[in-house]
Amino acid sequence: MLEVIEKLLILQNRDRQIRRVQDELNHIGPERQALMNKASGAQSALEKAKLRVKELESKRKELELEVQAKKQLIERYANQQMQTRKNEEYQALTREIEMCKEAIFKIEDQEIELMEQGEAAQKDVAAATKILDEAKKLVDEQLAQLATREQNLKKELAELQANREELAAAVDESARALYERLLKSKGHNVVVGVQHGVCGGCHMRLPTQILVSCQAQQELVNCTNCGRILYYTRDMELAAAK
Asked: Could you read off the pLDDT of 148-191 as tens digits, one per residue?
């Protein structure tokens, strides 16, 4: 194998390692946001449960005011009965009092129903609070783990990048320029082997002359289809698969 190919393969391996670490780092942000959204969802559920309790309590108080108003009407009608001397007026006031009492009974039934709903809502608040506490604990633990992982990845990336330029400088200038250009267009699969007569990058069949040049290992050889740098080792099969 050509020495320049060996150096390019070392550089390519380093670039792949750098890319892997960078990809992992790029996923840290979305992972962190997903964890925070999870805790936010639990918080929203709790706030919704609390709001339900407040709404039920507000409705119950409104009903209490209605009962008080009806009782005041009954008291007023009773006073009017004591003052009237007309039987028709007395009977009319009696009907009004009865209607107020019936209304009070219905309102009190509604109050009981609201109290039951309120108790259920309080249980929902307790359950949501428990879920939120557990979610916060879990999210905090996972965020801490994520922070540690991020720190380790940044350290690893710094170590990988530390001598990348040194590895690149060890490659012949023209070969390095070709590699860097292909790196931008082909990704981290620039220097590829030849197997069964096809390019290891684009997997297209290669002309016989290209295969002969690869086997000779006298100069850099490029794929006629994709332009990638080709190499050959003795464990590879040059002949096309039948």
From this structure: 999 999 999 999 998 898 999 999 999 999 999 999 999 889 99
Residues 22 and 80 in one domain: yes
Q: Say how far residue 203 (Cα) sits from the centre of its chain.
A: 36
Average pLDDT over residues 204-222: 92
Structure tokens at 138: 């879990």
Which of 162, 190, 149 lies closest to 24 in space, CA to CA?
149
Same domain, 146 and 181: no
Q: Are 112 and 221 in the same domain? A: no
Q: Based on the fold, state whether residues 45 and 161 are members of the same structural domain.
A: yes
Name the region of 176 (left: φ>0; alpha: ψ -120 to 50; beta: rest).
alpha
My answer on whether 214 and 146 are in the same domain is no
Q: How many CB atoms lie within 10 A of CB 220?
A: 20
Categorize the per-residue pLDDT at 31 as very low, low, confident or very high, splitting at 50, 70 and 90.
very high
Domain that holds residue 126: 3-165
Which phi and psi (to 5°) does residue 89 adopt?
-65, -40
In the listed set 113, 142, 165, which residue is the last one of a domain according to the structure?
A: 165
Residues 6+ apart with CB under 8 A from 181: none
Encode pLDDT of 224-239 as tens digits.
Answer: 999 999 998 877 776 6
Is 63 within the bounds of a domain?
Answer: yes
